[in-house]
Design brief:
Number of strands: 4
Radius of gyration: 21 Å
CATH class of the largest domain: Alpha Beta
Distance between the termini: 39 Å
Mean pLDDT: 83
Strand content: 5-15%
Order of helices and strands: HEEHEHHHHHEHHHHHHHH
Low-confidence stretches: 171-175, 177-185
Length: 278
Amino acid sequence: MVEQYQVRCHAWVLMNNHYHLLLETPQANLSQALRHLNGVYTQAFNRRHRRVGHLFQGRFKAIVIEKDVYLLELCRYVVLNPLRAKMVKRPGAWRWSSYRATTGEDEAPPWLTVDWVLGQFARTRQRAHAEYQHFVAEGQSRRVTPWLQVHGQIYLGSEEFLQQQQQRVGQDLRAEIPQEQQQPGRPTLVGIVTQVARGYGQSETELRRFTRRPNEARRVAMYAARRIAGSDLQTIGAYFGLGYTGVSRRIQAVATALQHDGKFRARVKQVLDAKVKT
């Protein structure tokens, strides 16, 4: 797949019933590449286990990420999957991931791109291996969930990145995203605000009312309206009585807090995990 479709694979992990790939597709051909990979893998798996029929259920789920901001964090998140599933106690004990090749414990296969990841840590390969290993080890004690910051089930990145990608929708990017994600069944702005208000024990009116004192529920509602409901900044601003920049600033503040404040992240997750009205 890597050779035929000129894809770059930065990280991977094979679990018991699914896999994760962190891919870069300069040719914008993700669908074709994964169709080839899944087809060939299914044939080989069926021959090995003497079975027939489909192996994978449904279509793949694709998240478009901002490389410079999130790629490194997701490289760590991917290889820590077996630890979160309590299948091993250290990432190197799981044979079916990119971890050992990226740390230098195993020789990297020609289809795995380790240069970009290691280049983020040090100039020398030996030092970079050690720093990457330390970086992944730090992630074992952190409870960061990147998916909390995904915009509308599709994008993971800054506000600027989101705007750039939305401008590309309808052009070359659209082929990269599964059909069901191009127009996902998102909750409405009102629905998500009502959900957040209920989670914080407040009314919708309270969340919309401007106050000089910080209101966590109000900020989270703006964040959810943007990241989950997919509303644009002008619409959110009009709803909450704020300007474009004020909304953007509050959304980014929530995104940053989700990365660094465990208690805040737990509260937001509890509110947003509840069933949202559409």
